[in-house]
């Protein structure tokens, strides 16, 4: 118990101290700015992992069928079809500049790509041929802290993209026009996203915070899932099974994760 000048008494209980610790932990490690108070994290564990013969995989998406994925490389700036065991099926013809995200839109058979430095979305056909490019008009402080992921809400054909840092942003587009921008403050960076069309939720991946966040369509966190894998930059979610597919940029590895049995 501490006496202050105005004679009020201030009590420091265990819960008060814990709340203060959470506030400190919620600050950005670089800027010290206040972030959203963290939600209790649910640990994940690795079910299986597969090496990729693809350098710097930086985006992951569903493929043509349930047995394959799409992966983009930040090294070769190519788009690959792979089996779920990581083996390459095909390398598409498109060559990008700084590929950091990929999504497959079953309706229309479109592939969406996020080009970070060029600050644009690109729509391809299944052969990797460009159908349309969408230069994006929004403010960010660095071309190297730009677009990191893309995913399509096929219920309304809105395209969501995520800006990595400075600022962290969830961007919502329709036909290439920005219709919503939501600032994010719950993680140290934002390195990927996945739209759960059935639940109408967005899952957001953070490399630096080593977490996956279940969010509403405005980017507000609902649940947090933690892991211990370096540089995750691609995400697919099976919400019904609470399982996740992710890829590590630094380890060139595809992982399948699940909620850890405590």
N-to-C series of helices and strands: EEHEEEEEEEEEEEEEEEEEEEE
Sequence stretches where pLDDT stays below 50 over 5 or more residues = 1-34
Q: Terminal Cα separation, in Å?
A: 38 Å
Estimated structural class: mainly beta
Task: Describe the strand arrangement of the main beta sheet, using strand numbers.
Answer: 16-17-18-19-3-22-21-20
Rounded mean pLDDT score: 86
Tally the helices.
Answer: 1
Taking Cα atoms only, what radius of gyration do you get, to the nearest Å? 20 Å
Q: What coarse outline follows from CA principal-axis ratios?
A: globular
Indicate the proportion of strand residues.
over 45%
Total strand segments: 22
The profile of the biggest β sheet is: 8 strands, mixed
Helix content, binned percent: under 10%
């Amino acid at each position: 118990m501490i006496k202050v000048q105005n004679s009020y008494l201030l009590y420091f209980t265990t819960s008060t101290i814990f709340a203060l610790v959470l506030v400190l932990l919620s600050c950005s490690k670089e800027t010290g700015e206040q972030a959203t108070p963290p939600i209790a994290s649910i640990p994940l564990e690795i079910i299986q992992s597969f090496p990729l013969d693809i350098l710097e995989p930086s985006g992951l998406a569903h493929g043509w069928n349930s047995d394959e994925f799409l992966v983009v490389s930040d090294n070769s700036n190519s788009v690959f079809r792979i089996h779920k065991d990581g083996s390459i099926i095909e390398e598409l013809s498109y060559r990008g500049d700084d590929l950091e995200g990929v999504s497959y839109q079953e309706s229309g058979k479109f592939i969406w790509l996020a080009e970070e430095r060029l600050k644009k979305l690109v729509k391809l056909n299944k052969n990797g041929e460009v159908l349309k490019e969408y230069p994006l008009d929004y403010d960010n402080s660095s071309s190297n802290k730009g677009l990191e992921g893309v995913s399509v809400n096929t219920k309304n054909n809105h395209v969501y993209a995520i800006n990595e840092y400075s600022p962290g942003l969830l961007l919502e587009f329709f036909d290439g026009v920005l219709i919503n921008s939501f600032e994010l403050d719950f993680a140290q960076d934002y390195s990927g996203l996945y739209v759960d069309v059935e639940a109408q939720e967005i899952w957001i991946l953070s490399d630096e915070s080593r977490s996956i966040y279940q969010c509403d369509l405005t980017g507000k966190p609902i649940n947090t899932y933690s892991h211990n894998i370096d540089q995750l930059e691609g995400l697919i979610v099976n919400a019904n099974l609470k399982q996740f597919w992710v890829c590590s940029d630094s380890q060139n590895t595809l992982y399948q994760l699940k909620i850890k049995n405590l």
